[in-house]
Write a structure and sequence with these properties.
This protein is α/β, with parallel strands linked by helices. The protein contains 10 helices and 12 strands.
């Protein structure tokens, strides 16, 4: 799996924020212009529900791009658990700058905290099984790195980043190459250092993937019985990833079969924003 270092996201964070401000502020915030230009303000961002926080650097970047003189005093860090009514950050600066940045900042903090919180919920359900929870490529367009980082803040792990850093040989690839063995051989020839994973839909395909020497084998929509058989058959020769039909009702049972990983697209595509509020106090 692929660890994510926040320092490696710097360029992505700057781009995410620039795009967000471009669509929200565009030619200028006519709403903030209602406030006197010289007015100073203090703001507090609070949470109205329990959550795992993620998005501190995105919020910092919003106000940095708008007004470098704005100061932020954080009471939490990414990965911290908070309760309803906790203060997350206090912000000081020009009232116009705080108002203009409010929505962009909260959008990032609400979405990424929601992703981290959802991941933490499912990670807790796996406690004691030794199974690692993985994200997928089912992320919001333009926010892949941000959401994958958020999953790690919730205790999950990041699967491959995209189509460039690892192979996931699926049904159409197998058909085009003429079989699982042929597809794995081509992959090894193309990029010898890249991990090769094969998606399988039944025990027969599992046997082919094992014979081909796949590093990871995905068990796609396997029944619990077939998953247990797959674990016994594989006997450590490859790592096994269970995927498909994974939810709160099925997660624990799948984990107890002995697979190495469980992947869930819902971690990043079915999140509900954490309820946050920014309270502003004019200080002129």
């Amino acid at each position: 799996m692929y660890p994510i270092d926040l320092n490696d996201l710097r360029q992505s964070i700057v781009a995410n924020v620039a795009a967000s401000l471009a669509e929200d502020v565009a030619s200028g915030d006519i709403n903030a212009a209602l406030i006197a230009e010289q007015s100073e303000a203090h703001a507090r961002v609070i949470t109205r529900e329990t959550a795992v926080i993620c998005g501190v650097d995105w919020v910092n970047e919003v106000f940095h791009q708008l007004d470098p003189d704005v100061t932020l005093e954080w009471h939490v860090r990414d990965g911290d658990r908070v309760a309803a009514n906790d203060t997350l950050v206090e912000i000081n600066g020009k009232a116009r700058s705080l108002l203009t940045g409010e929505r962009a900042a909260l959008n990032f903090l609400q979405l990424l905290s929601a992703t981290a919180t959802r991941a933490a919920h499912f990670v807790a359900m796996l406690e004691g099984t030794g199974v690692n929870l993985l994200d997928t490529r089912k992320t919001l367009p333009g926010l892949r790195l941000a959401q994958k980082y958020a999953v790690t803040c919730g205790g999950g792990q990041s699967h491959r980043m995209g189509l460039y850093d690892a192979f996931l040989i699926k049904e159409n690839h197998i058909l085009a190459c003429g079989g699982i063995g042929a597809a794995v051989t081509v992959a090894r020839d193309l990029a010898p250092g890249k991990a090769v994973e094969v998606e399988t839909e039944n025990l027969s395909e599992l046997a082919e993937a094992l014979e081909a020497g796949a590093d990871v084998i995905m068990l796609d929509n396997f029944s619990l019985e077939d998953t247990r058989t797959a674990v016994a058959t594989t006997a450590g020769r490859a790592r096994l990833e269970a995927s498909g039909n994974v939810n709160a009702d099925t997660l624990r049972g799948i984990a107890e079969t002995g697979v190495d990983y469980i992947s869930m697209g819902t971690l990043t595509k079915d999140v509900t924003a954490i309820d946050l509020s920014m309270r502003l106090f004019i200080q002129d």
